[in-house]
Design goal:
- This protein folds into 2 domains: about 15-225, Alanine racemase (TIM Barrel), CATH 3.20.20; about 245-394, Lyase, Ornithine Decarboxylase, Chain A, domain 1, CATH 2.40.37.10.
- Helix 7 packs parallel to helix 8.
- The chain has helices at about 15-30, 40-45, 50-60, 70-75, 95-100, 110-120, 140-150, 175-195, 205-210, 345-350, 355-360, 385-394; strands spanning about 10-15, 35-40, 65, 85, 105, 125-130, 155-165, 200, 220, 245-255, 260-265, 270, 275-280, 295-300, 305-310, 315-320, 330-340, 340-345, 370.
- It has about 400 residues and is of the alpha/beta class.
- The strands form 3 sheets. The chain has an 8-stranded parallel β-sheet with strand order 8-7-6-5-4-3-2-9. The protein has a 6-stranded antiparallel β-barrel with strand order 10-13-16-15-14-17.
- Strand 6 (about 125-130), helix 7 and strand 7 (about 155-165) form a beta-alpha-beta unit.
- The chain has 12 helices and 19 strands.
């Protein structure tokens, strides 16, 4: 069992070996002619941007994708040289940053295209996003040809990619997703016919990568699959995944309650019989959803300890009446395996009435990330300063 660094009572263990395994499994599935563009937005889905990005690249990813400029800049400042696609908006104030750090912008409007062209001092690859049915960010299909003609005539812009995003590829009914794919292919074909072939078309997110293999094209853009989770039961991959994240904390107090005692804010839980409860150091201030109050459970000594009462900002109370010998300092598993049982992000998402994406991305930076690489954790006596040095060296 991993012992957390000095002074830490709540932490997330991130298995970088699992990240590498998942990337290699995806690479085998899509084949050697399809690039992997790894989505590392939202702090690499809560797993930690820099260690995940480095591990994914070493395992076979050829490009990274971020949604905001500051994420892409952080990657560059850490020495990452691989292409980085900025999938989100580039405001005028960010044009110089994008160009200085060799970030590949996404273009969907004439003004941004002109601005980047005017400031670029050398050929700059760009991707164009087409909205095929998400009604979110992107050009309408009927506007793409004129837009590509326009930016192709601007100096120092190279149209490298065209991409879109599936809205329903994680569902049983793929009718809408197939219509999106059809629209995307129609635009690609028209551009090629007019003399504007696109070197790197890509449309597959994690779900589309699994459910629509005919849409793999030159590149795929997995996110959740890299972290060992599937977007939905309908999009479970035909290859094994390894979950990369476990969320753990510690028992910080144990006490006995008499019948009639109320627990936490609002007295939403009243003891009906004598109980033994444990106070644990995890709450909504760490990113654990308050909606799991009186619904969820933790693992202690390999057994489920139900959450009693409302979850607080930094702590919550669980029922350990049925679990013998619970003591201060005992490990508590909020997400992950302990003994013969496991609590998954999907199960927590059910308690919180949300999706697994939100569960992992909501984990705040104050939850210390502890990284495992080649089966190794740094020695348990090392403190927070040593952990910081270790992460910088990953």
């Amino acid at each position: 069992m991993m012992i957390p660094p000095d002074g830490v009572v709540t932490w997330a263990e991130i298995d970088l070996d699992a990240i590498a395994h998942n990337v290699r499994a995806i690479k085998t599935f899509v084949g050697p002619n399809t690039e992997i563009i790894a989505s590392v937005k939202a702090n690499a889905y809560g797993h930690g941007l820099l260690p995940i990005a480095r591990t994914a690249l070493e395992a076979g990813v050829s490009r990274l994708a971020a949604h905001r400029i500051q994420v892409a800049v952080t990657l560059r400042q850490d020495g990452i040289t691989a292409p980085i696609l900025l999938m989100g908006h580039t405001p005028p104030s960010g044009v110089d940053l994008v160009l200085r750090h060799r970030i590949t912008p996404t273009l969907v409007d004439w003004d941004t295209a002109r601005l980047i062209s005017a400031h670029a001092e050398s050929p700059t690859p760009v991707h164009v996003k087409i909205d095929t049915g998400m009604s979110r960010y992107g050009l309408e299909p009927e506007k793409v040809v004129d837009f590509v003609r326009y930016i192709a005539a601007l100096p120092n812009l190279q149209i490298e990619g065209l991409f879109s995003h599936f809205a329903t590829a994680d569902m049983e009914d793929l009718t809408h997703a197939r219509r999106q794919l059809e629209l995307f292919r129609e635009v690609l074909g028209e551009l090629e016919r007019l003399g504007y072939p696109i070197p790197v078309p890509h449309i597959c997110n994690s779900a589309g990568l699994v459910t629509l293999p005919e849409a793999h094209m030159a590149a795929v853009r997995p996110g959740l699959l890299i972290y060992g989770m599937a977007p939905s039961p309908a999009s479970m991959p035909p290859f094994p995944l390894q979950r990369a994240l476990s969320l753990k904390t510690t028992v910080i107090h144990v006490r006995d309650l008499k019948p009639g005692a109320s627990i936490s804010y609002g007295r939403t839980f009243i003891a009906q019989k004598p109980m033994r409860v444990a106070l644990i150091s995890l709450g909504y201030g760490d990113g654990y959803s308050r909606l799991a109050s009186n619904r969820g459970a933790m693992l202690i000594h390999g057994q489920r300890a139900p959450i009693c009462g409302r979850i607080c900002m930094d702590q919550m109370i669980v029922d350990v009446t049925h679990i013998p010998d619970v003591h201060v300092g005992d490990e508590v598993v909020a997400i992950g395996r302990q003994g013969d049982d496991e609590i998954t992000a999907e199960e927590v998402a059910g308690w919180a009435e949300t999706i697994n994406y939100e569960i992992v991305t909501h984990l705040l930076p104050q939850v210390v990330r502890v990284y495992k690489l080649n089966g190794y954790y740094p020695a348990p006596h090392e403190g927070l300063e040593q952990w910081a040095a270790y992460l910088r060296a990953l």
